[in-house]
Design a protein that fits this description.
about 425 residues; alpha/beta; Aspartate Aminotransferase, domain 1; Aspartate Aminotransferase, domain 2; eight-stranded mixed β-sheet; three-stranded antiparallel β-sheet; 13 helices; disordered C terminus
């Protein structure tokens, strides 16, 4: 069997060669410290018990197909949630429930793009967006986010990338992998560009409730007026249930401009019959009542403490700089190319994995153009974060001592005194 040519340039390195090596090492008996997983469950961050109980309660009645757009009670709860955020225009029929946001990203792009249409996507990005654009026949064009300005988008670069083939802009807010949360003026500039160039905004807001310190999440649709906006969110992150596969997309904007598109999306929703029904019964309970994520991100909360610790320890390693995440579950630290002349960051993380038994994600997997970043997940416990950063520091000491060939992968207890982590 031959593979489809549509896959020729499609990549999803987060589950690529590095993962295959890690799995083989585990088969051979090695214990891998995984700092690459955006899944809360393996780290003891489980779904609230009330949501699990409610889903179990409805399980007997969830054996048949649902409406292709999702069960009415779930879509009603989503609609009411957005209305409490000021998005009064979002009604039940504006919402499509899916098997996670991932499925809906693919569906919404397939219903929208013609071959050769361009979609602007942030760099760094969540790579599913780039892959889905390409699988839908489009061209992914990456605009820069500025590390020196809180990782906010470089709006001049966004506008410079717009051509007569550009059809949409993807906004990932809060951002994966940088943890940036965009202020109102950035979102208003996106809306202005969309209005002037007749573009659609795809706003990935799956981390909207995971915010630190004084960060405030603003829905893109709330500043866009009649501009078509597709708002994506779900239960995977804030409610710690990625395996349940419950996400949604809400369509806003001028109805006459979106009516044909809505019909196309309903067709695709019908072709997959329906989203999984049991998980849909978790949506209403999740969106109502007390929000348990608040305890995790407030001062003293587990995620807040782990973010603070990871950011501090990473910044203490010579040649690493790390912008504190304002939201989401990740850090995206930079390796100084003068100290660490890395030519291939995928090989860098493979070497780190094989020598120190720690797994991180390389920055170019997120379409960052230079091999000088990696993604570090803040979900593991503090003891694991300390262990992970110590292993990274030990590995990087090989670059400082031996140049760009860290063959020895120095053990933690043999690190040079220059490392501030030697006494951690």
């Amino acid at each position: 069997m031959q593979n489809s040519s549509r896959l020729r340039d499609v990549r999803y390195d987060l589950r690529g060669p590095v993962q295959h090596i890690a799995k083989q090492m585990e088969v051979e008996g090695h214990r891998i410290l995984r700092m690459n997983l955006g899944d809360p469950a393996p780290f003891g961050l489980e779904a609230p018990e009330s949501i699990v109980v409610d889903m179990i309660h409805h399980l007997r009645g969830a054996q048949g197909y649902s409406d292709s757009k999702g069960i009415f009670s779930a879509r009603t709860a989503i609609s009411q949630y957005y209305q409490t955020k000021g998005l009064m225009q979002i009604g039940v029929e504006d919402i499509f429930v899916g098997n996670g946001v991932s499925e809906l990203i693919s569906m919404t792009l397939q219903a929208f793009l013609e071959s050769g249409d361009q979609v602007l996507i942030p760099a760094p990005d969540y790579p599913l967006w780039t892959a889905s654009v390409m699988l839908s026949g489009g061209d992914a064009v990456h605009y820069a986010c500025d590390e020196n300005n809180n990782w906010w988008p470089d709006m001049a670069d966004v506008e410079a990338k717009i051509t007569d083939r550009t059809r949409a802009i993807v906004v990932i807010n809060p951002n994966n992998p940088t943890g940036a949360v965009y202020p109102r003026h950035i979102l208003e500039q996106f809306a202005d560009l969309a209005r002037r160039h007749d573009l659609v905004l795809f706003s990935d807001e799956i981390y909207e409730k995971i915010l630190f310190e004084d960060a405030v999440h603003i829905h893109t649709a709330s500043v866009a007026g009649d501009i078509p906006v597709l708002t994506f969110s779900g239960l995977s992150k804030a409610y710690r249930m990625p395996g349940y596969r419950a996400g949604w997309v809400a369509i806003t904007g001028n109805r006459s401009a979106t009516s044909a598109y809505r019909e196309s999306l309903e067709l695709l929703a019908s072709l997959r019959l329906c989203p999984n029904v049991p998980a849909q019964h978790a949506i209403q309970t999740s969106l109502g009542g007390y929000q348990s994520i608040n305890d995790l991100v407030k001062p003293g909360g587990r995620l807040r403490q782990q973010r603070d610790l990871a950011c501090r320890l990473l910044n203490e390693i010579p040649g690493i700089s790390c912008v504190p995440a304002a939201g989401a579950m990740y850090l995206f630290p930079r390796l100084d190319p003068q100290l660490y002349p890395i030519a291939n960051d995928e090989q860098f993380v493979i070497d780190l994995l094989q020598q120190q038994k720690i797994l991180v994600s390389h920055g170019t997997a997120f379409h960052w153009p230079a091999p000088d970043h990696f993604r570090f997940v803040i979900l593991p416990a503090e003891s694991d974060i300390r262990d992970a950063v110590s292993r990274i520091a030990a590995f990087l000491a090989g670059y400082r001592v031996q140049g760009s060939t860290p063959a020895a992968g120095l053990p933690v207890d043999q690190m040079p005194d220059a490392s501030p982590l030697a006494t951690e």
